[in-house]
Write a structure and sequence with these properties.
The chain is an alpha+beta fold and 114 residues long. Helices cover 21% and strands 47% of the residues. It has three helices and seven strands; from the N terminus they run E-H-E-E-E-H-H-E-E-E.
């Protein structure tokens, strides 16, 4: 069982089997947990900032992380990863029912291998 401090494993999971990446945890102010059911890896993302999509509704929320957490608790199956960019240290999620996207500015990604 190892811990890898690199976004490469999350990037690989997203590239090869994006539909098996499931959002499992959103803990403000900075923690997001993602599980890959295909390869059984757990990805822990430390977030610097969450930026909701630019819409009138998103602008009403002061804290992007709180809004992201609310979406993840209200309809967790519908919040999916839509982008992993290890070069720019960002991960993007899309909430289908709310029609919102959340761009996460990532400080660190750790992958726990089972």
């Amino acid at each position: 069982m190892g811990v890898f401090k690199s976004g490469a494993f999350l990037q690989q999971c997203f590239s090869v089997h994006p539909l098996t990446l499931n959002l499992k945890l959103v803990t403000p102010p900075e923690l997001v947990g993602i599980v890959c059911t295909n390869c059984r890896m757990k990805h822990r993302v430390t977030v610097r900032q969450v930026t909701p999509q630019e819409s009138d509704e998103a602008k009403m929320h002061d804290d992007g992380m709180q809004s992201f957490q609310q979406c993840s608790q209200t309809h967790p199956e519908d919040v999916r990863i839509s982008l992993v960019d290890v070069v720019n240290n960002s991960v993007e999620f899309r909430c289908r029912p709310c029609r919102r996207t959340y761009l996460l500015d990532v400080g660190m990604i750790e992958t726990h291998q089972s």
